[in-house]
Design a protein that fits this description.
It contains two helices and 24 strands. The protein is mainly beta and 313 residues long. The chain has one domain: Neuraminidase, CATH 2.120.10.30. The longest helix has 23 residues. The protein is globular. The chain starts with 7 loop residues before the first helix and ends with a strand.
Amino acid sequence: MMATSWPCGILRSSRFAALLLVTAAAQAQVTVPSAASVAPAAQQPVAPVQATPPAADATTAATATSWKQLRLIKLPNPGAASLDRRGALYVADADNNLRQYGPEGLPLNTYAPAQPGHVAQVEAWNVTTTLVFNDDRQQLVLLDRFLAPITEVRLADYLDGTVRVATLAPDNVIWLLDESNLVLREFDPNTLRLVQSTPLDLIIGRSRPDFRFIRQYQNNIYLVDRSTGIYVFDNLGNYKKKLPFTGLGAIGFRGDELYYLDAGAIHFYHLYTQAERRVALPAGLDPATVRQVLVGETYAYIFMATGIAVYQL
């Protein structure tokens, strides 16, 4: 049998194609899922962590913004606080009464409970209903938009455990973090029953959590653990991912951004593009005196021991 003679050009093309196939196969073997990928919690022994955006140059100063102070709300040692959709401010005072202010910081209403308890969290985003969570009494209080009581719920009557944080969702269900059993629970205040529960032990692993805050925003639930970061769940309680922001006691939301106070600046993190930016606090303000910041569409509120400074953005 005579050997077939192949044209030189065909041989070169075949060798090049083979080289491409080998290279593609090698790349496929070393490619791994992104750290930001999301998979059901049951399929992952360790919580997936959102990829951290490239760190900014340490020498780059935070972006300056135009701060115009309007007034100082003289409220010594303000506590838990929240903004509603209209920009009204709700804040617990040193006696655990809840005070309501207009967007410019003018007083509107006050709720003084007959049996005060420590206000651990306030959620007023719904406008029509405001939630007050008393952690020492393990009690939920629902108020209308004028801070008149709607109902009170004693949590010990419905679950066997200690709730650390609680928040009111847009559909008026309440999300609770049962710290004793390490479970995220959904509670319906209308039917007074637990709707569903999400165990967190496999998600958190062997870390020792320090839960400080919870909030539902844009169909996601954000659970702040000061030790390890922010755990993100969908509005059905299914685990999605973890954001690597540690050392936080609370977070806020503005538009499509999550924000928090750290190192003398307000850090903004875009929920969908993962872009980050920093805004410096007002000039002349000692960052060491700032305890908390809430940012609305037009106004910002800076919490200090002496009261709350109201700024127009």
